[in-house]
C-alpha cells in the first residue's frame, strides 16, 4: 500500500473498492495511489476529460511508482466533503469549482465577479498567469496546495421562463453554488438565490424547488438541465473554473523525484486540457441545440443591461479580494 495512506485512507479504500467494484486504473496496491474525485461527467466535459487525461498520463509515465484512479459524478464525494477527504488522505486530488473555496479563502471570490472577463480566451490567459497561481497559495494555511486550474467555460443563465432582460429574472429563485458573490449577483436581479450541491440541481429544477440556474454549456448539457428549463440565455456572465488541489501532507510525503515527475505531468496536462475548452464548450452548446434545447442570444443592448445590473456587486467584495487584484484581472480582458 502507498506509504501515505493512513488508517482513514485504508478504511476509504474498502469503501472505494466496494463502491467502484473494479479498480478503474487497476492499481495493484504497490504504487502510490492517487485518487481524483470530482462531481461532473466522466467524459464530454472539460473537467471530466482533463481528469481522465491526467490519469492516463500518470498511469503510463509513472507506472510502477504511482497510479491514478478517477471517481467522477460525485460517486465518492461532493465538493464540500472532498475538502475534508483530502486532508484525511482518503483522496489525493480534487478540483472543486473556485466558487466553493469560500470557507478557506475569500481571495478566490475574484473569479465569481460577474463580467470580469470579456471572453473565455481572456479568462484562460488570466488563469495561466503567475498572479493567478499566487492566488491559490491562499489555500496553503489550510493544509492544501493548489497545483493549477482547469478551465470549464463561461456561465449562462437558464430558467423556467424566457430570460432576455434582467427584469425577466425578477422574482425567480436561482440555484447557486456556495458563493456569496453569486448570491449578491442574483439579488441584484431582484431574484432570490438558493445554494445547492451540484448533484441536487437537476431534481430541484425538475420539481420547481428552484426556477433557474447558471452554469457552463457542458454542465447544462451533460447534466441535462436544459431538459427541465424553458431555455438558456447566452449571458457569458461569469467564469466557471476549478482549482486543482492536493494536500500538503500528500505532496510532501512523495520522494523528490516522484513529486517533480507528478507536478510536471500535472502542469503539462492542465495546459493542454485548457487549450481545448473553447472547442468542447462549443460542442456542448451545439449538442443542446441538436437535442431540442432553446438558446437565446442577447443583443448588445440587452447584454449591456445585464452588465449594468450585476457588475455593481464588485464593490461589495473589493475588500476581500483586493482592488489591485480585481484591476489586474479585469485588465487581462482589456488587453
Ligand atoms: C462543477 O462544474 O464542478 C460543478 C459546478 C456547480 O456546482 O454548478
From TrEMBL:
Alphabetical GO biological process terms: C4-dicarboxylate transport; transmembrane transport
Record family assignment: Belongs to the bacterial solute-binding protein 7 family.
InterPro entries tied to this protein: DctP_fam (IPR018389), TRAP_DctP (IPR004682), TRAP_DctP_sf (IPR038404)
Superkingdom classification of source: Bacteria
Name of protein: DctP family TRAP transporter solute-binding subunit
Signal peptide region: 1-22
Name of a matching Pfam family: DctP
Amino acid at each position: 500500500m502507498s506509504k501515505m495512506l493512513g488508517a482513514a485512507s485504508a478504511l476509504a479504500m474498502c469503501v472505494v473498492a466496494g463502491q467502484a467494484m473494479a479498480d478503474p486504473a487497476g492499481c495493484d496496491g504497490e504504487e502510490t495511489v492517487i485518487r481524483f474525485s470530482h462531481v461532473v461527467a466522466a467524459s464530454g466535459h472539460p473537467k471530466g476529460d482533463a481528469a481522465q487525461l491526467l490519469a492516463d498520463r500518470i498511469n503510463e509515465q509513472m507506472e510502477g511508482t504511482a497510479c491514478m484512479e478517477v471517481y467522477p459524478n460525485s460517486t465518492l464525494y461532493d465538493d464540500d466533503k472532498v475538502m475534508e477527504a483530502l486532508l484525511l488522505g482518503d483522496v489525493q486530488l480534487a478540483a472543486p469549482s473556485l466558487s466553493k473555496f469560500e470557507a478557506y479563502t475569500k481571495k478566490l471570490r475574484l473569479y465569481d465577479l460577474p463580467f470580469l472577463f470579456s471572453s473565455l480566451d481572456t479568462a484562460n490567459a488570466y488563469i495561466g498567469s503567475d498572479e493567478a497561481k499566487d492566488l491559490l497559495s491562499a489555500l496553503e494555511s489550510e493544509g492544501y496546495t493548489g497545483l493549477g486550474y482547469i478551465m470549464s467555460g463561461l456561465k449562462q443563465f437558464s430558467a423556467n421562463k424566457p430570460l432576455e432582460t434582467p427584469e425577466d429574472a425578477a422574482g425567480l429563485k436561482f440555484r447557486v453554488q456556495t458563493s456569496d458573490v453569486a448570491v449578491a449577483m442574483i439579488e441584484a436581479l431582484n431574484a432570490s438565490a438558493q445554494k445547492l450541491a451540484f448533484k441536487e440541481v437537476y431534481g430541484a429544477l425538475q420539481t420547481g424547488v428552484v426556477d433557474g440556474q447558471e452554469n457552463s454549456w457542458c454542465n447544462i448539457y451533460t447534466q441535462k438541465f436544459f431538459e427541465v428549463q424553458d431555455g438558456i440565455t447566452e449571458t457569458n456572465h461569469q467564469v466557471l473554473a476549478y482549482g486543482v488541489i492536493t494536500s500538503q501532507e500528500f505532496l510532501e510525503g512523495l520522494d523528490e523525484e516522484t513529486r517533480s515527475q507528478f507536478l510536471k505531468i500535472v502542469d503539462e496536462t492542465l495546459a493542454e486540457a485548457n487549450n481545448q475548452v473553447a472547442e468542447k464548450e462549443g460542442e456542448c452548446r451545439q449538442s443542446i441545440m441538436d437535442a431540442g434545447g432553446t438558446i437565446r442570444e442577447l443583443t448588445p443592448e440587452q447584454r449591456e443591461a445585464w452588465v449594468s445590473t450585476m457588475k455593481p456587486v464588485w464593490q461589495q467584495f473589493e475588500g476581500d479580494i483586493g482592488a489591485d487584484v480585481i484591476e489586474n484581472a479585469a485588465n487581462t480582458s482589456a488587453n
